[in-house]
C-alpha cells in the first residue's frame, strides 16, 4: 500500500533521476530507497523509470508524478488552510523567482505591512515554475520569461529594455547604441543555461546567425555586473538592475534590437485557493510602481 513518505521519496528520485543523490538529499540508505521505488512499481504494476544506463523517468513515471504532485499539493493546501484558520489569517506565502534583486522593494513593503506573515522565498528556473504551482509547492511565481502551462494565470508586472554593460574604460563605453553584429567576438559574462538572461543572449545572437563568445557563466546573478567591472568581459544588464546598482561603475549601452527586452510577470495556478497572505502579496506586486526610481506603491 502506498504511503505518503514513499510518494514524497518518489518525487525526489523523479526530480533528480539519480538514486544516490536522492538518497543523500533524503538522508536515507540507497538500498532502502531502491526498495521503496521497487515497491511502488510493483503496486502500480508498471516500471516508473528506464534503467538502461542513466536512471530516467519513463512515460508512466511522468504520468504518475503529475498525479502525486497534485495529490500531495492538495494535502499541503489543506494543512495550510487549517493553519490560516487557526492563526486568524496570519498564515504564510511561498514565492518562487529567478532572481530576487528585482523584488526587494515590494517584498520589504509587504513585510512591513504584514509582519506576522511567514514569507518563504524559493529560487527556481522558469521551466520548473508550472510544476511547482501544480504541486502547490509555491503560491506565486515571478518570472522574466514565459511560463508555458494551460493551468497558470499570469499578470504582467513590467516590461523593460535590456542593454549591454561594459567597463568604463572599454573601447565601446562611449557608444550610444550597439548592434548584435558589433557584439560578435566580444567576451561575455552571463548566467547559466536556462536563466532568462542567458536565453535572451542566445536568442539575440541566433536571430543574426551568430553564437556569443561566453567566457564566464555565473550562478551568482547579482555578481555579473561586478565581473564586468573587473574586466572579465561584457554582458547584458537589465534597466532595473542598472537603477538598483548605480554604484557599480560600468557603462550601459542600448542594443539596436527591439527584442532586447524582458517582461516580468507574476503567475499562480488557475482555480487554486490562494491564502489571504498570498492574495495580499499578489496585490502588492501588481500594484507596485515599477517605474519609480526607488519603487513606491501606487496610490489608490
From TrEMBL:
UniProt keyword terms in alphabetical order: DNA-binding, Transcription, Transcription regulation
Pfam families in alphabetical order: HTH_1 (PF00126), LysR_substrate (PF03466)
Domain HTH lysR-type: 2-58
Alphabetized InterPro entries for the sequence: LysR_HTH_N, LysR_subst-bd, WH-like_DNA-bd_sf, WH_DNA-bd_sf
Record-stated family: Belongs to the LysR transcriptional regulatory family.
Name of the protein in question: LysR substrate-binding domain-containing protein
Protein species of origin: Streptomyces griseosporeus
Amino acid at each position: 500500500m502506498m504511503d505518503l513518505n514513499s510518494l514524497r521519496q518518489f518525487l525526489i528520485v523523479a526530480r533528480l533521476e539519480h538514486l544516490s543523490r536522492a538518497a543523500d538529499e533524503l538522508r536515507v540508505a540507497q538500498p532502502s530507497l531502491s526498495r521503496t521505488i521497487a515497491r511502488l512499481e510493483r503496486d502500480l504494476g508498471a516500471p516508473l523509470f528506464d534503467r538502461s544506463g542513466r536512471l530516467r523517468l519513463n512515460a508512466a513515471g511522468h504520468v504518475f508524478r503529475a498525479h502525486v504532485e497534485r495529490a500531495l499539493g492538495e494535502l499541503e493546501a489543506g494543512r495550510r488552510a487549517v493553519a490560516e484558520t487557526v492563526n486568524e489569517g496570519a498564515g504564510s506565502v511561498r514565492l518562487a523567482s529567478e532572481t530576487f534583486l528585482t523584488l526587494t522593494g515590494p517584498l520589504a513593503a509587504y513585510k512591513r505591512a504584514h509582519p506576522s506573515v511567514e514569507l518563504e522565498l524559493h529560487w527556481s528556473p522558469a521551466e520548473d515554475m508550472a510544476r511547482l504551482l501544480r504541486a502547490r509547492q509555491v503560491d506565486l511565481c515571478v518570472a522574466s520569461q514565459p511560463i508555458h502551462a494551460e493551468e497558470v494565470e499570469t499578470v504582467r508586472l513590467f516590461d523593460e529594455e535590456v542593454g549591454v554593460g561594459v567597463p568604463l574604460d572599454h573601447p565601446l563605453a562611449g557608444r550610444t547604441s550597439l548592434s548584435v553584429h558589433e557584439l560578435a567576438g566580444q567576451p561575455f559574462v552571463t548566467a547559466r543555461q536556462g536563466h532568462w538572461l542567458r536565453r535572451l543572449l542566445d536568442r539575440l545572437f541566433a536571430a543574426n546567425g551568430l553564437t556569443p563568445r561566453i567566457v564566464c557563466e555565473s550562478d551568482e546573478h547579482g555578481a555579473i555586473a561586478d565581473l564586468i567591472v573587473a574586466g572579465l568581459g561584457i554582458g547584458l544588464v537589465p534597466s532595473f538592475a542598472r537603477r538598483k546598482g548605480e554604484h557599480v561603475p560600468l557603462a550601459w549601452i542600448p542594443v539596436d534590437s527591439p527584442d532586447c527586452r524582458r517582461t516580468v510577470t507574476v503567475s499562480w495556478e488557475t482555480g487554486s485557493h490562494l491564502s489571504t497572505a498570498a492574495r495580499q502579496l499578489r496585490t502588492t506586486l501588481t500594484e507596485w510602481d515599477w517605474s519609480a526610481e526607488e519603487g513606491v506603491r501606487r496610490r489608490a
